[in-house]
Amino acid sequence: MSSCLQQIPVHTAPPYQVTVGPGLLRTCGPRLQEVLSPCRIAVITDSHVAPLYLERVCESLQSAGFSVVSRVVPAGEQHKTMATLAQLLEFLAEEHLTRTDCVAALGGGVIGDMAGFAAAVYLRGIRCVQLPTTLLSAVDSSVGGKTAVDLSAGKNLAGAFFQPAAVLCDTDCLSTLPPEILADGAAEAIKTGVLCDESLFSLFESGSLDLPEIIARCVTYKAGVVERDPTEQGERKLLNLGHTVGHAIERCSGFAIPHGHAVAAGLAIIARAAETRGWTDGPLAERITACLAQNGLPTGTDYSAEALAQAALSDKKRAGDTITVVAPRQIGVCELRKLPVSQLQSLIAAGLEV
């Protein structure tokens, strides 16, 4: 095995391994032979990724003895819907996939979410492997088994926890990403630094970005959290740092603002709000916003506190008349705070003030 590869085990039920390194799409067939018996694999990807990588992946799988079919869906969060999910399920049925077969999610977070959800519900669950092609999906969404589609009421409101059989993060894919898409992934990695790892956060402050190492560190942290709390009953809620406001920004924009950029703005807003409320151990928001801005990310939004609070009312983190927000105390330490829904607008308003 190449010394350039890093392998991170995820001890869930069932367990699996995340492999990070170059050339993994070209060798995905023999690598998946290690975890899959001969079967049919349905590769699901989108219209942006297909011209770049679909042929390469299908050839590798076929050379390893897998029978391969593929489906290309339109790219973009606006297509992460029940209608697209239904089309994917009909495709799997038309191709006569059985419970011994597998879905391969080739793409970014949207494809990973949708293809994973399709695998989770088709025949009450068939195996799925994640082949992330963006920094965002590599550091976050491909690991942990969260799968979902959006509803008109909000983001990721229909989904399932469904762990993959394997994750192959081919770092060669990062070379094809435009700066704004790389920044999208940087937002989730910076979030991880704020959550648990000041040295990781400092890499983004200094600009010393070893992306394979950053991916491995983010995956290692998330793997530990998912192992301890696979279905988000406690600790895993911390991974939603920046997401309550971030998802609201996405929804208010009609998903024109991409996920990472929205999370970055949400992180900056909650950092300012936490500092204003006295929840931090001292000045914090300026350091976070400066790091985000340095990495090409927004630190605010033009949407009002009222609009954002209204959009957040359908957030998954709401429970009855309360909502749980994740607030930073210092770089590397965050806390869950349960608030009455009636206080959310004023909290967001405090974060919007600069």
Q: What can you see in these coordinates?
A:
The longest helix has 18 residues, at 179-196. Helix 3 (82-94) crosses helix 4, helix 6 (179-196) runs antiparallel to helix 7 (198-206) and helix 6 packs parallel to helix 10 (259-276). Helix content is 43%, strand content 21%. It has 354 residues and is an alpha/beta fold. Strand 5, helix 4 and strand 6 form a beta-alpha-beta unit. The mean pLDDT is 95. The strands form 3 sheets. It has a 7-stranded mixed β-sheet with strand order 1-2-9-6-5-3-4, with helices on both faces. The protein has 2 domains: 6-176, Rossmann fold, CATH 3.40.50.1970; 179-352, Dehydroquinate synthase-like, alpha domain (Up-down Bundle). The chain is globular and about 60 Å long.
Sum up the structure in keywords.
354 residues; alpha/beta; Rossmann fold; Dehydroquinate synthase-like, alpha domain; 2 domains; three-stranded antiparallel sheet; 13 helices; 12 strands; 21% strand; globular
Summarize the model shown.
This protein has 354 residues and is of the alpha/beta class. It has helices at 28-33, 50-63, 82-94, 109-121, 135-141, 179-196, 198-206, 211-228, 243-252, 259-276, 285-294, 305-312, 344-352; strands at 6-10, 16-21, 40-46, 67-73, 102-107, 127-132, 146-151, 154-161, 166-170, 318-319, 322-330, 333-340.
The number of distinct helices, counting runs of at least 4 residues, comes to 13
Number of strands: 12
What's the overall geometry? globular
Report the helical percentage. Answer: 40-55%
H/E element order: EEHEHEHEHEHEEEHHHHHHHEEEH
Structural class: alpha/beta
End-to-end Cα distance? 51 Å
Summarize model confidence as the mean pLDDT: 95
**Which strands sit side by side, in order, in the main sheet?**
1-2-9-6-5-3-4
The CATH homologous superfamily of the largest domain: Dehydroquinate synthase-like - alpha domain
**Major β-sheet profile:** 7 strands, mixed
The radius of gyration over CA amounts to 20 Å
